Amino acid sequence: METLSALKTDTAQQQIKLIDGKFTASEAAGIINDVLQVKINFHKLNRLSINEADMSNACEFDNGRIHELYQAQEDAEEFLNEMRRQGKKLTITSMINISIDE
User: Fold this and answer.
1) Phi/psi zone of residue 85: left (φ > 0), alpha (ψ -120 to 50 degrees), beta?
2) 33 near 73, Cβ under 8 Å?
3) Domain total for the chain?
4) Does residue 90 contact residue 28 with C-beta atoms inside 8 Å?
5) pTM
6) Contact between 65 and 2 (Cβ < 8 Å)
7) What value does the mean pLDDT take over residues 16-23?
8) Which of 32-36, 52-56, 59-63 has the highest mean pLDDT?
9) In the predicted model, what is the mean pLDDT of the chain?
10) Left, alpha or beta for 72 (phi > 0: left; psi -120 to 50: alpha)?
């Protein structure tokens, strides 16, 4: 399994291979849940920070994104539970692409 390796060091774009490996359904569930939970917490903290600065801001983007991530977490849990019941091994790959906004 390879994680967090920088693939391209071009100054205009960066790619990071975050996840690349074969996992049991239980291992995959742990990885997916942890990644989604980090993103959910990021948006919750961002929402809190925005609200402290401007209580009238509805934080629609963060609220919507949190809802999407919780839904993704539920969908993944359902899928991975079924894969666990079937005894399947899974391959997970995840690439982060970073580019400069001009």
Assistant:
1) alpha
2) yes
3) 1
4) yes
5) 0.76
6) no
7) 97
8) 32-36
9) 86
10) alpha
